[in-house]
């Protein structure tokens, strides 16, 4: 009988916090040892945190990473579980690596072969690719060690590990960034890989936020017929254990003999001999888990992003400008869920054009969330601005300049509160506004974290409705959903005066930004060419604003940040 007890340490490291990450590793090792695990998996680059970016260019950072590995090795003395932990091997060059550690010794080191260099990834900038596979041999059981992108590569090294080396289990340690739908996509992909190659897969993914990136966890184990037998929580730290029956591999091969006729490149590899698994008295059963609905998944992602950005950067409290509109209502709600109501401050900053309804809705939201609400009028400051500029502006008519003055006064207020009390300012602009420039530079764009920067306006409403349903009460006041969106910077202003309906705008933006379609292809989807070109023109003209926007939480396949690198100076026009 080929049985293996595997523990997945789905944990949330902090980049550069070697001491804290080491302590998490020690705790997981103790738990795995208590559970009599044969194999313990940590996420990719767990000891350093991921992605380290240009910290990779600092020798002091690399040395601390190496020293932390040595401390973990020392701590493992007397422990029988073999662990695979992500770290940076920098003895001769920099490699994204996995160390195999057992009983006070590094038994082997694997260097990641497939280095991603697309989207948010820049691994070719920092790492040298590995050239050799690593196979652990525990008695009759063979385990192939891989790191993240290795398993996403269409062919290698998985083909050589399974067809060439005959491994029973592929262990993959990962830091796979999140976007909406990624957990389900990943589950389908990995279960199909397991089925295609008739091999069990144990996949341990990082969880938590790092600047704009999120890692959802959702670690899993699939058996050789593609059935997911264990799934970790989404956006939750978890240490899970399962007993895997690896005799299933042979059974699947006999019933479905396709592997007999498949060929491979046979990449070079080395075997690493480890003690065989010991018999176990108790059994850790299957835990296949379930899926979240879309709105819950996005909300939980944003809560995780806010919590980790705030706490990992040493803040305790945040401040949000409350307008009585949908965006600020959702941001305040997310912040309260992430940090607790005692750590969220709301600020109402009425102007001459702020409606009574908006003030009432903002106050009601603050009351429903149990957050402190401050009111600081901008009327007198706005009047003083107009007075100071009166002579210079005397031969002009009021326009967007006067509207933006109000937004910038509010931005100044929020930043003053941040400076005085150490509160982090959360901005409230959504992806639709960031794309079209419907936001004021140094005004409502001023702050430290753009919470819904990657969330389209239509999704803001959907998530808000889902939240109220979940709570069974109108935490976000019903009138917020019903009134027309408006910046309220002049009488009777609405967003739709300058923008297409959000239902149309958001779909055009999604096709153009995330699916990379050209105008003609978008028109084939049923949209008017005039509206498409108007939208793309707004997107192009406002690149300079986005370059100055605060970092935002990425939840889509292509967000304004690491994976959107458009030039500001650009005369190319869509055909």
From TrEMBL:
Record's family? Answer: Belongs to the NAD synthetase family. In the C-terminal section; belongs to the NAD synthetase family.
An annotated Gene Ontology molecular function? NAD+ synthase (glutamine-hydrolyzing) activity
Which residues participate in L-glutamine binding?
118, 176, 182
* Pathway info: Cofactor biosynthesis; NAD(+) biosynthesis; NAD(+) from deamido-NAD(+) (L-Gln route): step 1/1
- PROSITE patterns, per this entry? CN_HYDROLASE
State the gene name recorded for this protein: nadE
Q: What does this protein do?
A: Catalyzes the ATP-dependent amidation of deamido-NAD to form NAD. Uses L-glutamine as a nitrogen source.
Keyword Cytoplasm applies: no
Designated name of the protein: Glutamine-dependent NAD(+) synthetase
Tell me the active site: 44, 112, 148
Domain of life assignment? Bacteria
Name the EC number(s): 6.3.5.1
- What range(s) does the CN hydrolase domain occupy? 4-246
| Binding-site residues for ATP, renumbered to this chain | 321-328, 428
Note the PANTHER family from the entry: GLUTAMINE-DEPENDENT NAD(+) SYNTHETASE, NH 3 /GLUTAMINE-DEPENDENT NAD + SYNTHETASE
UniProt cross-references to Pfam families, sorted A to Z: CN_hydrolase, NAD_synthase
Q: Which reaction does it catalyse?
A: deamido-NAD(+) + L-glutamine + ATP + H2O = L-glutamate + AMP + diphosphate + NAD(+) + H(+)
Q: Where does deamido-NAD(+) bind?
A: 404, 433, 545
Q: Which InterPro entries match?
A: C-N_Hydrolase (IPR003010), C-N_Hydrolase_sf (IPR036526), Gln-dep_NAD_synthase (IPR014445), NAD/GMP_synthase (IPR022310), NAD_synthase (IPR003694), Rossmann-like_a/b/a_fold (IPR014729)
Which keywords accompany this UniProt record?
ATP-binding, Ligase, NAD, Nucleotide-binding
């Amino acid at each position: 009988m080929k049985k293996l007890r595997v523990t997945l340490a789905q944990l949330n490291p902090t980049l550069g916090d070697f001491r804290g990450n080491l302590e998490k590793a020690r705790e997981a090792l103790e738990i795995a040892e208590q559970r009599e695990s044969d194999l313990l998996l940590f996420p990719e680059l767990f000891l350093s945190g991921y992605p380290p970016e240009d910290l990779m260019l600092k020798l002091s950072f690399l040395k601390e990473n190496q020293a932390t590995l040595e401390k973990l090795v020392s701590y493992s003395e007397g422990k029988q579980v073999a662990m695979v932990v992500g770290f940076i091997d920098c003895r001769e060059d920099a490699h994204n690596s996995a160390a195999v550690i057992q009983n006070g010794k590094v038994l082997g080191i694997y260097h990641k072969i497939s280095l991603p260099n697309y989207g948010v990834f820049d691994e070719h900038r920092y790492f040298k690719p590995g050239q050799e596979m690593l196979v652990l041999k525990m008695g009759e059981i063979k385990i192939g060690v891989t790191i993240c992108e290795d398993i996403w590569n269409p062919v290698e090294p998985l083909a050589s590990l399974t067809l060439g080396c005959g491994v029973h289990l592929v262990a993959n340690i990962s830091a796979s960034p999140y976007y909406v739908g990624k957990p389900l996509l990943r589950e389908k992909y990995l279960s199909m890989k397991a089925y295609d190659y008739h091999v069990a897969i144990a996949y341990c993914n990082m969880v938590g936020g790092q600047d704009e990136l999120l890692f959802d966890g959702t670690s899993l184990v699939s058996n050789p017929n593609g059935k997911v037998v264990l799934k970790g929580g989404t956006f939750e730290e978890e240490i899970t254990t399962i007993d895997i029956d690896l005799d299933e591999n042979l059974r699947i091969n006999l019933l479905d003999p396709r592997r007999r006729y498949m060929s491979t490149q046979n990449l070079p590899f080395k075997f690493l001999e480890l003690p065989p698994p010991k018999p176990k008295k108790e059994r850790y059963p299957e835990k296949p888990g379930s899926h979240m609905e879309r709105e819950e998944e996005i909300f939980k992602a944003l809560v995780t992003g806010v919590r980790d950005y705030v706490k990992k950067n040493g803040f305790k409290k945040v401040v949000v400008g409350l307008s009585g509109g949908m965006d600020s209502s959702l941001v305040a709600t997310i912040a309260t869920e992430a940090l607790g109501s005692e750590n969220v401050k709301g600020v109402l900053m009425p102007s001459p054009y702020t409606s009574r309804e908006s003030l009432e809705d903002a106050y009601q939201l603050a009351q429903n969330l149990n957050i402190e609400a401050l009111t600081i009028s901008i009327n007198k400051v706005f009047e003083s601005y107009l007075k100071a500029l009166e002579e210079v502006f005397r031969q002009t008519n009021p326009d967007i300049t006067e509207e933006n003055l109000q937004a910038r006064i509010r931005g100044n207020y929020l930043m003053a509160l941040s400076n005085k009390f150490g509160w982090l300012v959360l901005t409230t602009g959504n992806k639709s506004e960031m794309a079209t420039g419907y936001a004021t530079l140094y005004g409502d764009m001023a702050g430290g974290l753009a919470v819904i920067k990657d969330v389209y306006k239509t999704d803001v409403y959907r998530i808000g409705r889902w939240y109220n349903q979940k709570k069974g009460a109108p935490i976000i006041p019903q009138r917020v959903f019903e009134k027309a969106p408006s910046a309220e910077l002049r009488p009777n202003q609405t967003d739709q005066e300058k923008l297409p309906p959000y239902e149309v705008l958001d779909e055009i933006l999604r096709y153009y930004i995330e699916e990379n379609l050209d105008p003609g292809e978008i028109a084939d989807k049923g949209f008017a060419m005039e509206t498409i070109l108007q939208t793309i023109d707004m997107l192009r003209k406002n690149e300079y604003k986005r370059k100055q926007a605060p970092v935002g939480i990425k939840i889509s396949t292509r967000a304004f940040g690491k994976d959107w690198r458009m030039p500001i100076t650009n005369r190319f026009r869509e055909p």
